[in-house]
Amino acid sequence: MAENHRKYSLTVLRHGESEWNHDNRFCGWVDVGLTNNGLAQAQKAVEALVEEDIGFDIIYTSVLKRAKETAEIIRDGLEKAGLVSNLEIVEDWRLNERHYGSLTGHNKAEMAEKYGKDQVKIWRRSYDTRPPPISESHPFYDKIHNNSALTVVPKDQFPDHECLKDLQERAIPYFEDIIVPQIKSGQRVLIVVHGTTSRALVKHLEDVSDEDIEEINVPNAIPFTYELDEKLDPLGDKTYHADKETVRKAIEKAASIGKKRK
Ligand SMILES: O=C(OP(=O)(O)O)[C@H](O)COP(=O)(O)O
What is the ipTM of this complex? Predict the structure, then answer.
């Protein structure tokens, strides 16, 4: 049997800590920025990439600023280190975080207290259970709908709530149609996205079952790389560009429902 050979690689990065990651609030399509810690985390990701001499030819990201800001920090840092020049950043709404419906803006620990931890885990991590839809009277409905960055979303595709499956159905066709041809043409690709978009990519690339994906959490700001064969199947596990203990703690944090507001 022919031996599988590494043909391509692909790196994925969830953005640095956002204001609402810090506040432990469901965020989704609300366009919050990075905290100072998030900015520093993105710089650390740059350092890790530079240390391993990893450059890219193109970056894909969402239209939400927490991902775009992270992508820009990576681009600027790699340019400064001389690893890349004129690195293009392509943004598309189909790589956005899933829309968190009526949970948007709510504190995760408070929702767990109100609805139970099991229900909140289903809303956060199940493959195909949507959170309840956002209503027009929701405090963040207008903020989302008046965001000029989101005018690119076709009206008939603008969601009121999404589960991982919904996100998968918009993000994976984008990945297959737009990103895969770049990878196959030999471009070194970095995808800077969100927790749920990263989980969709992990599920797709690793062929994770609908049940097993519930236990997979993606940490903020730690890039990970797949080595892929000619069919874009991963050769072995993904490699995180950070030490094991840092990765373990960051994954634990991403899984946690965190603390109530003080
Ligand atoms: O907007 C979100 O994801 P993001 O911080 O990756 O953009 C979610 O609120 C993260 O929360 P979750 O980990 O409960 O899915």
Answer: 0.96
